[in-house]
TrEMBL record:
Residues 53-62 have a biased composition (Pro residues). It comes from the Eukaryota. PROSITE patterns: GLUTAREDOXIN_1, GLUTAREDOXIN_2, GST_NTER. InterPro entries: GLR_AS, Glutathione_S-Trfase, Glutathione_S-Trfase_N, Thioredoxin-like_sf. CDD domains: GST_N_2GST_N. The chain crosses the membrane at residues 225-246. This is GST N-terminal domain-containing protein. The keyword Transmembrane helix applies. It comes from Triticum turgidum subsp. durum (Durum wheat).
Length: 345
């Protein structure tokens, strides 16, 4: 997918004035709201006539060098963060770790060529298959407005991982000045998550309705059991984030880049969660390439770098490409936060 083609609509090209109204992430019992709209409407008619300021230029921090990826390693001092982010594994029973129809088998090493991604175990290789190649793939990224600390948003993100979808996320942290107001403008409510599918013209609220829509449109129509248990699903999604509930929810004053950051990640990974928390707090739009177990996108990273590890980001605004969640957070804050010296992971 060409990054250059992914630019923000005119009405999102600059920060809106800060708002002090924080919408509550809460479950609604009303039916899903549908509307035919693929992009936020342009606000050019109401734009000021004065010449806009030139967009800020972005560059990596002075002396920056991408870290060497270290598989299964935790940076000193970050064990508690990773452990807290990993609470989702028992509470959500691994939902979002595997793509639709995932299956695994052990085969001899010569059955999988060395230039193809696979795990090794006791001298054998792990062959992973799925049903993703049988499902419809969206031509354009689906757009979702949400924030990390919301259990209803988490449910939708898990379905995104299961269906191996590419999604352009517009983060909506509390007091975020740009995308929270746009949701109210587009849909009439500050309620999250809010999805816009430019491939079909459908836009909707309600996490369960979004999950069903994605399953019917880009899956085989089935919803994983841990996403179909009603109140129990919502409670466990909330418990999965309880140790880091304050992370990925509140806005940190930042600079909006002209292009979304690309990230290869998936919902079941605690390392990916830590990186996405920073993206959301900084209100940085990001194109997420889902890559749960069984995803063919793992091969893309393996082909580029000779290994697969998530999260991995490519920032078209600075040219930075890097692995390692803790270092990704440091990079994002140093590059985009107006006050990086006051940030802690």
């Amino acid at each position: 997918m060409a990054t250059a083609a992914l630019r923000f609509p005119p009405c999102l090209s600059s920060r809106a004035a800060p708002t002090t109204t924080a919408a509550t992430c809460t479950r609604r019992t009303a039916s899903a709201t549908l509307r035919v709209a693929a992009q936020p409407e342009s606000a050019s008619a109401s734009a000021p006539t004065s010449t806009p300021d030139a967009p800020p230029e972005f560059s990596p921090p002075a002396g920056f060098a991408p870290p060497v990826p270290k598989r299964f390693a935790v940076k000193d001092g970050q064990l508690a963060s990773v452990a807290g982010a990993a609470l989702a594994l028992p509470f959500r029973l691994g939902t979002g770790l595997f793509v639709l129809g995932y299956s695994v088998s052990l085969v001899s090493a010569d059955k999988i060529p060395p230039d193809q991604y696979s795990l090794e175990f006791l001298g054998l290789k792990v062959k992973e298959t799925s049903k993703i190649d049988q499902c419809r793939r969206p031509e354009k990224p689906i757009e979702i407005y949400e924030f990390e600390g919301c259990p209803f948003c988490r449910k939708v993100r898990e379905m995104v991982s299961v269906l191996d979808l590419d999604v352009l996320f517009y983060p909506c942290p509390q007091k975020g000045p740009t995308f929270r107001p746009k949701v109210l403008e587009m849909g009439g409510k500050k309620q999250f998550p809010y999805m816009v599918d430019p491939n079909t013209g459908v836009a909707m609220y309600e996490s369960d309705a979004i999950i069903k829509y994605l399953a019917d449109t880009y899956g085989d129509g089935t919803v994983p059991i841990m996403l179909s248990l009603g109140l129990f699903t919502t409670i466990t999604a909330g418990l999965a984030m309880i140790w880091r509930v304050w992370k990925g929810s509140s806005y940190t004053v930042s600079k909006l880049p002209p292009q979304p950051i690309e990230i290869w990640a998936y919902e079941g990974s605690p390392f990916c969660k830590i990186a996405r928390e920073a993206l959301v707090e900084l209100e940085l739009p990001h194109l997420l390439h889902s890559c749960a177990r069984g995803s063919p996108k793992r091969q893309e990273i393996f082909k580029k770098h000779g290994l697969f590890q998530a999260p991995y980001i490519e920032d078209p605004n600075t040219g930075v490409k890097m692995f390692e969640s803790a270092e990704i957070v440091e990079y994002l804050r140093a590059t985009y936060s107006l006050y990086p010296q006051y940030q802690n992971l």
